[in-house]
């Protein structure tokens, strides 16, 4: 299967990239690099893609397990190399679950399945980065 994304220059340092489903996203850079901060930076989008990929897995698995959560968020951190080309050499994904009487063993299983089996973006990150994960439960 081949995916195609078209990325179109919108002027200055802003680019608009499409998605096979027709949605678009803006990319830009910081003013100190000549941009206007009008979109996500490409490297921030990589961290967002990692969290989004795993998050989709986790929510889908929890739904199939009939596990109730009131909220779920992921904080994703990436450490860049000092030299060019700069890339993430270390990444950390923190999974935060909120709710009453959280079923920790099932949540752990859902996260593990995403990390170890389903999340292709995480597998790609492992090719160039050390990836660490942690789960945090916030019972009300």
Report the top-level CATH class of the largest domain. Alpha Beta
What is the CA-based Rg, rounded? 17 Å
Largest sheet: 3 strands, antiparallel
Low-confidence stretches: none
CATH topology description of the largest domain: GMP Synthetase, Chain A, domain 3
Q: What is the distance, rounded to the nearest whole angstrom, between the alpha carbons of the first and last residues?
A: 44 Å
Q: Give the total of beta strands.
A: 6
Strand arrangement, major sheet: 1-2-3
Calculate the mean pLDDT score and round it: 96
Shape: globular
Query: Which class do the helix and strand fractions yield?
Result: alpha+beta
Order of helices and strands: EEEHEEHHE
Helix count from the secondary structure assignment: 3
Description:
Pfam families: OsmC. This is OsmC family protein. InterPro entries: KH_dom-like_a/b (IPR015946), OsmC/Ohr_fam (IPR003718), OsmC/Ohrsf (IPR036102). By secondary structure, the protein is of the alpha+beta class. The protein has two domains: 1-40; 42-139, GMP Synthetase, Chain A, domain 3, CATH 3.30.300.20. Helices cover 31% and strands 33% of the residues. The chain contains three helices and six strands, in the order βββαββααβ. The chain has helices at residues 42-64, 104-118, 120-125; strands at 7-11, 14-18, 24-27, 71-80, 88-99, 130-139. The strands form two sheets. The protein has a three-stranded antiparallel β-sheet with strand order 1-2-3, with no helix packed on it. Strands 4-5-6 form a three-stranded mixed β-sheet, covered by helices on one side. β4 and β5 form a beta hairpin. α1 packs across α2 (104-118). The chain is globular, with a radius of gyration of 17 Å. The model has no long low-confidence stretch (mean pLDDT 96).
């Amino acid at each position: 299967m081949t995916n195609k994304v078209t990325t179109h220059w919108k002027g200055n340092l802003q680019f608009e990239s499409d998605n096979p489903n027709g949605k678009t996203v803006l990319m830009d850079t910081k003013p100190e690099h000549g941009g206007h901060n009008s979109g996500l930076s490409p490297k921030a989008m990589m961290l967002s893609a990692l969290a989004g990929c795993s998050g989709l897995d986790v929510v889908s698995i929890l739904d199939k397990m009939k596990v109730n959560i009131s909220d779920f968020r992921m904080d994703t951190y990436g450490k860049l190399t000092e030299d060019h080309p700069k890339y993430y050499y270390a990444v950390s994904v923190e999974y935060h679950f909120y709710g009453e009487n959280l079923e920790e063993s099932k949540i752990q299983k859902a996260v593990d399945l995403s990390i170890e089996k389903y999340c292709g973006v995480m597998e790609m990150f492992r090719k160039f980065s050390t990836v660490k994960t942690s789960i945090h439960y916030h019972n009300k």
